[in-house]
Amino acid sequence: MKFMSIASKDLKELLRDRRGLFFILLFPLFFMLIFGFAYGNMGENNEPHSIAVVNYDQGVTMPGGTNINFGDKTTDTLKDVQYPENDTNMFNVTLTSEAEADNLVKQRSVDAEIIIPENFSKSISTLTPSTVIVRGDTGYSGFGITQAMLSSVLGEYQTKLAAKIENNGNNQSEQLIQGKIEGLPGTESFTAFDYLAPGMMVFAILMLATSVATILTREVESGTLKRLKLSKMTSFDFLFGGLLPWSLVAAAQVLILFAVAIGIGFHWQGGIESIILSVIIGIIGGIASISLGMIIASFARSPPQAGQLGTLVAVPLTFMVGAFFQLPQMVIGSFMGQQIQVYDILPWYHVANALRYVLTYTVSWDTIMYQIVWAVVLSAILFVIGVFLFSRNRLRPDNS
User: Fold this and answer.
1) Residues 117-166: pLDDT tens digits?
2) What whole-number distance in Å separates Cα of residue 351 and Cα of residue 374?
3) Which domains, and CATH codes, for the chain?
């Protein structure tokens, strides 16, 4: 019965390391919660889809002298249409310009944009078919779902409009509102991988937190920090000195993963400027991850525990910042014309968005300035917190 002795010994060791056992049990729980949060409502028909409407329609004066704008009426229809089984609106509609609508689609703040032409009302009034453009990222599943819903809603609206025209004594057999599906310029051949590749870079950057936490904890355990404290080294010297090489690692990760992504089919758009910007963005994300590693090392008691805690924190964060899939809209306000969501408190969320804009959609520095500023500010805050906690818990001078 020697196996019982071995089993008893291993069970006692497992129970003795309660924190390690806690991490083992909690890690799958985090994945369950994250995937439930992301996919729990998938397939339900009561979730509003965000769309942007660009209305160029100039309106028309009808024979009776009445001014009417069918573009406005179409927009109101999209705002008011609800799912048949409940009172939930099908769409969250944002009226905006075409340039801003393109940016919202690139940010995936909306699933699609609708462009109503300037002669829309005139065409309807003269029973001439008019083309409404539905534009989006053709490699994004949310666009496919939304454009199908829009086609259905516009088809029903066109049927009702045709019925009114026929009641007025006009026969209209041809479809008045014709939909045209367009991809964003340059994205027609995109696949899901073009969205995932920048997310993989964010995943690699976030995993730096685990390595940093493990190394810092190992230096505490080996007594290296105790010897360094005797040299009158300051907390800033130690932590900022470690920040520099790890930032270079983050930059190298971006370049290596970018090269691999290109080799396996990533549709990169842009020149050397986009690569330079992506490296800068990667370094900012790396600083945030290093700061997170400091925070983890402030509480971990051993290198294995630091590795477990780092993985427990970094991997769920990867999903929470939208590295692998589109996050549900959770808008809590607006600032500088930008929607503020709960994810905006995480610097890696802005890093992921900025990398996608630069590498996938080829936008300029001005376009990503908002994301960059927030990433820098949040990373700086995280670094200050990391320095404070690590200094207090690990670098406090001995009283002896």
Assistant:
1) 998 888 887 878 888 999 987 767 678 788 888 888 888 888 777 666 65
2) 9
3) 49-183 (3.40.1710.10), 191-394 (no CATH)
Strands (E), the chain: 49-55, 60-61, 67-68, 91-95, 112-116, 130-136, 177-183, 331-335, 338-341
Q: What three-state secondary structure class fits 99? A: helix
Measured distance CA(340)–CA(315) in Å, rounded:
23
Closest CA to 305 of 12, 31, 18, 29: 18
Confidence of residue 304 (pLDDT cuts 50, 70, 90): confident
Q: Is 89 exposed, middle or buried (0-12, 13-18, 19+ CB in 10 A)?
A: middle
Of 49, 50, 67, 66, nearest to 58 by C-alpha is 67
Neighbours of 54 (CB within 10 A): 22
Helices 192-206 + 303-320 axis angle, to 10: 150
As a whole number of angstroms, the distance between CA 144 and CA 107 comes to: 16
Contact (CB, 8 A) for 348 and 378: no
DSSP letter at 362? -
Tokens of 337: 């014309």
